[in-house]
Specification:
15 strands, alpha/beta, 10 helices, 18% strand, 3 domains, Aspartate Aminotransferase, domain 2, five-stranded mixed sheet, seven-stranded mixed sheet, Aspartate Aminotransferase, domain 1
């Protein structure tokens, strides 16, 4: 368990990291409450952004003052009108060393990245099957159903063999970091030699996660070209929601990949860039967090995520005994949130209202919890949740980075509230 003193010491280091990005740093004092930690972090983030705006006042959509290189911390940018040709030089958000070679296209959000890849896949593969595990991110499934009509959705329920058995068209795998742990493991225990491409949404894993390395090594074992898509407004910004930013990072196996596979990936990269340009999905330079290159950044992020995962395991154990029959899913592979259901099925309106009421009631009781549609914060958050592959609704409780004792109290209060309501 992490004590309150250890928590506040760790949070002070995070605040120092953010404060160090200011030209004129503030005089920081050790935080004395969770509320103070949360407020200071968002205030510092706002100051960093506003300072960047004052320094980069010549930056406009028309790029009229293009006589110097634009920067954001360690990142350098080159582009012309409306960033259609945006080139980014700087460190990777992933901490994978030199084991994997990547080319990255940055976008205005995670959904902008995956939308560009999905639509570009038509030019690289033509009509294809896309293997989608149960519980994949709802908006991605909605995108496939509504706009990527060249992709035939095949739901994966237990490994890849049955879903990929017929070789009548190219096979693309959507591996989503938001699925249940059992589904994730069954896919990585499967053979991948029938796949032509893997689209790996890594959003729910920290950039240094062993899960990411494991997935890429699995893809390399089966010579599967891979594109990692990611929203950086989650685990990559110390819970501060610094700015909307996404990316698509392309990885080719270093050996064993067919020439046809390499050619298709090259085509996919080119067409993804075109899709970003034509749909106006290019990234904004001011949304690149300047603290990414700080020496303490990786350590701070890893310690934050480790604390969330510890709290998540405690939550799963408590809810499995106290909320029997009322837990929708307690074992997502990412460990960042759990989902709860009612005695009767919830529809969208009921799930929305319940998520809002739960956070409001527990917040009035003094707990650090908000009704917020994201995760990875220094406060707990509730939101409605839709499993698009089963069409079932539930309420998502996102696990925060909080001291162990405080989170245990909030977990007990959440279970009591859920049973009562």
């Amino acid at each position: 368990m992490e004590t309150n003193d250890q928590y506040f010491e760790r949070k002070l280091e995070e605040l120092k990291l953010l404060n160090g990005c200011l030209q004129t740093p503030l005089q920081l004092t050790p935080p004395r409450s969770v509320a103070e930690v949360i407020n200071r972090k968002f205030q510092l983030t706002a100051l960093i952004r506003s300072e960047h705006e004052r320094q980069e006042w010549t930056t406009t959509e028309t790029a009229w003052a293009n006589d110097r290189t634009r920067t954001a911390g360690p990142f350098k940018f080159q582009y012309d009108y409306q960033r259609a040709d945006l080139t980014v030089l700087g460190p990777s958000f992933y901490d994978l060393g030199s084991e994997f070679v990547q080319e990255t296209v940055y976008t205005s959000s995670g959904m902008a990245a995956i939308s560009a890849v999905m639509l570009a896949s038509f030019h690289a593969f033509g009509p294809a099957d896309i293997l989608v595990p149960r519980g994949a991110y709802g908006e991605t499934v909605e995108l496939i159903d509504g706009y990527a009509r060249h992709l035939r959705k095949v739901i994966v329920t237990d490994g890849l063999e049955a879903a990929a058995s017929q070789r009548t068209s190219p096979k693309l795998l959507l591996l989503d970091s938001s699925i249940a742990a059992g589904s994730f493991e069954s896919i990585l225990r499967s053979r991948g030699d029938s796949l032509d491409l893997m689209i790996f949404d890594s959003t729910c894993f920290a950039g240094s996660s062993g899960h990411i390395r494991r997935v890429l090594r699995w893809a390399s074992q089966w010579n599967v070209p891979t594109v990692m898509v990611r929203s950086h407004n989650k685990l990559d910004t110390l819970g501060s929601e610094y700015g909307r930013l996404g990316s698509a990072s392309f990885d080719t196996p270093k050996r064993g990949a067919s020439q046809a596979g390499c050619d298709r990936l090259t085509k996919l990269i080119s067409e993804t860039k075109n899709a970003v340009r034509l749909f106006g999905g290019a990234a904004l330079p001011e949304h690149f967090p300047p603290f990414l290159s700080a020496k303490s950044y990786r350590q701070a992020t890893n310690r934050r995520v480790a604390a969330i995962l510890r709290n998540s395991r405690r939550t799963s154990r408590h809810f499995s005994s106290s909320l029997k029959g009322l837990a929708a899913e307690l074992h997502f592979v990412h460990g960042l949130y759990v989902t709860l259901r009612g005695h009767r099925p919830l529809d969208e309106a009921a799930a929305r209202a319940t998520a809002a009421e739960m956070s409001e009631n527990l917040g009035r009781a003094g707990f650090p919890i908000r009704h917020a549609g994201s995760f990875g914060f220094d406060f707990a958050s509730t939101e409605w949740f839709h499993d698009s592959t089963t069409d079932q609704y539930s309420v998502r409780l996102a696990i925060p980075d909080l001291p162990s004792a405080l989170w245990d109290s909030l977990t007990e209060a959440a279970a009591t509230w859920w049973i009562a309501h």
